[in-house]
Design a protein that fits this description.
Chain A: This is DUF2997 family protein. The complex is a heterodimer of chains A (76) and B (242). Chain A has 76 residues and is α+β, with helices and mostly antiparallel strands. Chain A has two helices and three strands; from the N terminus they run ββαβα. Chain B is α+β, with helices and mostly antiparallel strands and 242 residues long. The chains are: A alpha+beta (76), B alpha+beta (242).
């Protein structure tokens, strides 16, 4: 299991960059509100990385395949 | 990495870029505040959307793009009414076009433009946006610069810098704007405000860091690493394994 981390960089001009690392799929968006509260800050831009979308694809695949499996089972 | 966020602390606004070489741009940012008939935020937002404009919340203000989608301006709640805050760099034409268009589409008079004409004739005080949003942090920064500040009953912070009278004024949680009166040399005031802006932001960095450390303890997160980089930014890495 990859380690889950948050890297917070506070710049001298007051701006903040926060990276949520190793948290898969939509779960990582839960950390946006946690970070806003921790830092008393507002998010002005967010960027999702390849890892986020790969995981999303897996979740979509599972949703598509699930009913087919059930249908096959009912036919037996 | 899963998500990367750019954030600004709520005590800070990113309305204006200061710096030694930005004087001309700062002069262009001089505000033209035009009062409207809107008292409620929801009425303003509904009217804008009905007329085909956007209304995006932006650090205590509302941001609206002109129809060309490139230029924008802000709305700010001042003295009980919403004002359209155009800057001098917004051409008079584009601002006038916007006001005409909105009034035509909504079939009502919305802007009190006669007040703007009166202000333009007097030309004093000159009003500029700032990046300051936190009163105590602003007063602390001014005092560290050796400036005596007077806080008026209406909340204004008044001080004298380089023989000019500066009034910092805030409405709600919107960023402060500064009124400058009797400035013999505006450029010197700008340099002073630019230094003030730098110092205020350093305080913001320090305040964000201190509050973060306190909250990390409360939330029982663990700090894996902490360092100060060459650009003086502070990096904290938290372990959130649960």
């Amino acid at each position: 299991m990859s380690s889950k981390k948050i890297r917070i960089q506070i710049f001298p001009d007051g701006q903040i960059k926060a990276d949520v690392l190793g948290v898969k799929g939509k779960k990582c968006t839960d950390y946006i509100s946690i970070l806003e509260e921790l830092l008393e800050a507002e998010t002005i831009d967010s960027e999702y990385t390849a890892e986020y979308y790969e995981t999303e694809q897996l979740e979509i695949d599972q949703e598509i395949h699930q009913p087919m499996t059930l249908y096959s089972w009912e036919e037996r | 990495m899963s998500v990367s966020l750019t954030m600004i602390p709520i005590v800070l606004a990113l309305r204006i870029v200061m710096g030694k070489n930005q004087f001309e741009k700062w002069v262009e940012s001089m505000e033209r505040a035009i009062p409207t008939v809107f008292v409620n935020e929801s009425d303003l937002v509904d009217a804008l959307i009905q007329a085909g404009y956007d209304a995006e919340k932006y650090g205590g203000l509302i941001k609206t793009h002109h129809l060309n989608k490139k230029d924008y301006f802000f709305w700010e709640f001042r003295q009980g009414k919403w004002h359209a805050i155009f800057s001098k760099q917004n051409s008079q034409d584009i601002a006038a076009q916007f006001m005409d268009d909105l009034e035509r589409k909504l079939k009502q008079k919305i802007f009190h433009r006669e007040r703007e004409s009166a202000v333009e004739q007097i030309e004093e005080p000159r009003v500029f946006p700032t990046n300051f949003r936190d009163r105590s942090l602003l007063v602390r920064t001014l005092q560290d610069f050796g400036v005596n500040t007077v806080q008026m009953n209406n909340g204004d912070i008044v001080c004298t810098i380089q023989n000019a009278q500066l009034t910092f004024r805030q409405e709600g949680d919107a960023p402060f704007h500064v009124e400058i009166a009797n400035a013999p040399r505006l450029q010197e005031i700008y340099y002073y405000l630019s230094d003030l802006d730098d110092e205020y932001k350093k305080y913001v960095q320090s305040q964000v860091y201190e509050k973060l450390k306190k909250k990390i303890k409360e939330k029982a997160f663990t700090i894996e690493n902490e360092e100060v980089l060459e650009d003086n930014s502070i990096v904290i890495t938290l372990n959130i394994q649960q």
